[in-house]
Every structure is written in structure tokens, then in C-alpha cells.
Structure prediction request, 453 residues.
Amino acid sequence: MSFHAALSSALAFVLTFASSPAATAEAPWREILGPAQGSLPAPQAKIEWRTDLDAAREESRRTDRPLFVTFRCLPCKQCSDFDAEVLEGGERLDPLLARFVTVRLVSASDVDLRLFPMREFQDFDLSWWGWFLAPDGRIYGTFGGRDHSSDASRVSSEALARTLERVLAHHYDPRRAAWDVDGPAPDLSGAPQTPAKLPGYASWSKLTDRGAAEGSCLHCHEVGEIVRQGELDAKRFDKSRDVYVWPLPENVGLTLVRDDGLLVDAVAPGSAAAKLGLQKGDVLGAAAGRRLFSQTDFRAALERAPKGAAKLELVWLRDGEPQHGVLALADGWRKTVISWRKSIAEGTMGAHPGMAWFFPAKPDVRRKLALPPKSLAIRPHFGPEPGWLAAEAGLTVDDTIVEVNGQSPDLANREFLAWFRLTFEPGDTIRYRVLDARGVERVVTFTAAARGR
Prediction:
């Protein structure tokens, strides 16, 4: 199967849930979301984090235990604390993890995108992510997430434990096959569809001097950059719309209890959720025809919704009784803070500012140069590598950049880099208005490029 065929299959997979009987009010949600009828097997004697996915899948089929597969980028500090919590387990997690076939993968280089359709089910900018799979590869759900505040704002060990409990209850319920709400099993005939086979891989490799062909580790955020590069190359990517990925529950007016994942803690007045009638104490059950096991699953449903104005079918429980309705989402509903995302600030999209890095000017420098508050004031850094475009144009480490092409946003560090990439394209003329150490003003001009040197 070619990548384009696999992509068409993935799109059909997503659309199936929007039009299937399970995506309507007639689906047996009272049964699906009600008390489970199955019984759990005894836990295994010990928890083993396997690294051979093929062997783990065979074990899952043989034992009828669901798979819990985690992706972890080891060099990244982000999510490292939560990764350690999962590995260490404890009294709450261990009895649940011991009923899964647990797998830990530390590189996305060889991931088969037919088994793990990451574009639809994984936030690429996270360095830890979990997948729950049936023995035949059907996707129950995923777990992971963060926002601009921290990498602990959307996940916890208790939230994971509750998700594990829900997945186990669902997997072992004898009525599950008749419900048919888990999507199709993946077609794994033919060669694996790895990130190196994606349309944007070749041009991304040239832009970054990175690649997986030599067996090097490929990070999940780099898979996201490759996917986006393919869209950029095909001129199908819209910066004003397509950068707002993995919307938060707050985007539709919901605040969910982190340690539960699906319990509604608050509903914003006037929001789409409020207009639908959701209330504090409701429990989310399904979205777009898929059962929800975690806050992550709800965010995944939001991610797969249309980019503009959208409607999303929702099922929730109130006092144990299923409720049903459609969230009506206005154009622009996805917008949220994205500067924390590595694929935005440090990816291949847009233009590079032409310097290795930059730092906010210290307060004494601001005072000396008489700079107004809430304005741009950053100091460039070039490092040992030669050829930075801004340096070749005359920018020095003693300069303070106070304006870019007439704009002076109060931004620094990653926020400035994200803004720059979203604002400018390779080939644009960049004009830095700068002040030197004595306060003498000049303009540094260069032509922007994707790499900055």
C-alpha cells in the first residue's frame, strides 16, 4: 500500500466515525457507558516494558490482553517526570499495568503509521505519549498532553490509572464486538509506512540535516514537522489556521478535572458547551462516535474536527443517564497559545530570524536605552557557527533589537521565535531596527531563509 493510499484509508477511517450508526444517538450508549459486564484476568506476576513491538502484538493476541504502548523521546526533559512515574508504577498503577502487554518505544524512526496513525491520534509536540490498542490493532484511545503552562497540567498518575481502568473494563466486556465503536482493524499488508516514506521527508531532511535513513533516532515532534513539510511543499498549509492543533477542552468552554479526565469541573458561560447544556458534574462519554477514555481522547476528537466552523456530536452522562447533543463551534474556535510547541518555534515552517538564539535585554539595558515598557528588546547570540544571516548583515552581540519591520512585540525567547516564524517567510526582506551599546540607532537588513544561515 502506498503512503497516499494509506493516507486515503486513514481519512476514510476518520470519516467512518462521522457517518456510522455508532456516531448517532441510536448507538447503545446506555450499555457502552454503563456498568461493565466482563471480568478482568489476574495480573501478571511482574510488569515488563517490552521493546519488541511485533513480539508484544503476538503476545497480546495470544493472551487477549490489550496493548499499552508508550513513545518516549529520551533526550527531552519535557515529560521526563511523568515518564518516571509510569515506569516506577506503585500501588495504584501496578495492578492495572500488569493486566496489559506494556511496550516502551524510544524512537519514531521505524513506527508503522498504519498501526499508529499519529496525525489523527497523537500530539507530535509531546515527548511522552501512550496508545491503547486491541490485540488486532484497533485503537481504543490515547493518553498524554500538556498546554503552555507546564507538562503536568493535563496528565497525572491518577488520571492514567482511571484511563487504564476504563480501557480494561471496555476491552473485557463481552458486548464490545457488537457495539462496534472501536474503528476498523488496520490493514498491515505490505511494507510498513514509516515517517521516511512521508511526502515531506526529503525536503525536511535537507532543511534540518536530520534523517532516519542511517538509523538515527527520530523524535515525535520531527514526525510532525515532516507531516507539515509535506503540506507546505504542496502549498496546502495555512499559517492562520493550521497551526492551532490539539485544541483544549477550554476551547469549547469545558474545564475537566485533571485527575479524572472526563469529569466536568466548570462550564464557561456563553460557550459552545454551555449552549449545548453541559453542567458541572457531567461526565463526557463519547465524541464523534468514539468512546472516550481520557481527556486526551476528547482533545483528539477536537483535533479531528474541521478547522473552521464545526459541529461535534457529543454524548455525556448526567447522574448516570446518557445525554446527547451537538457542539456548534464557530470559526476560530481552535485558537490557543502555541509558542511552547517545538515544531512551531524550532521547526521548518516560516523564516528563521538569522541568529543562533536571543535573550531579553536586562532591565538596566532597557533603562540605559530608554526603551518603553511592553516593547521588543532582545539581544542576539550567534555561537561558534559561522554564516548567520543577521550577523553577516551587521548585527552584533552588543546590539539590542527593538523593532522588526515596523513591529515591536513584547516577546522574547521561544515566544519571539514562534512569532517570527508565523509572521515571515523565506525570501522576505527583514529590517531589524537596533540600538548599539551607546544608544545609536541603525537598521540591519537581510533576506530571510528557512535555516538562518
Summary: The longest strand covers residues 310-318. The CA atoms of residues 267 and 278 lie 7 Å apart. The radius of gyration is 24 Å.
